[in-house]
Amino acid sequence: MSKLDGRCLCGAVSYTSDAEPLFCAVCHCRNCQRQTGTAFSIVVAVPEDRFEVTGELSEHVTIGEDHGQPTRRRFCSGCGSPIVTVSESAPGVAIIKAGTLDDPSWLEPQLEVWCESAQPWVPQDPERTRLDRHPPQPA
Ligand SMILES: [Zn+2]
Ligand SMILES: [Zn+2]
Fold it and tell me: Into how many domains does the chain fold?
């Protein structure tokens, strides 16, 4: 079993990855708030070619407000669990919605993004890097 094994709520979709995570972050953007129905997303990123899904995912595409690139949010059409996001603003990276991991206990976010739309009651941890919006584009 990999620490990056996970599944949706109904079990129709599962996934695994043997990669070491690239980063672990919290996203306070309005789209994540709407998609998850809660205050923020907790995500863990891996190389897209090391991320393997079993089952069928539906997709909703948004265009990033600041980078103008398509962002593809993939979810289980049976139960609606958000599973993974890929964005042309970060090619080759699969951003897993980490609440779907079988074991999320090891997660340790280093970064918080879109803090300008963070809900005001969410505590701010001074130990973590906080960005107002999207991380700078990789060159
Ligand atoms: Zn499902
Ligand atoms: Zn977000």
Answer: 1
- Residue span of the structural domain in which 38 resides: 6-130
Using alpha carbons only, give the angle 115, 15, 38 rounded to the nearest 5 degrees.
Answer: 30
Sign of CA dihedral 86, 94, 36, 126: negative
Residue 30 lies inside a defined structural domain of this protein: yes
pLDDT at position 1, please?
A: 78
- The alpha carbon of 10 and the centre of ligand 1 are apart by a number of angstroms equal to 4
What's the whole-number mean pLDDT along residues 88-115?
A: 96
- Ligand minimally distant from the alpha carbon of residue 43: 2
Residue 136 in domain: no
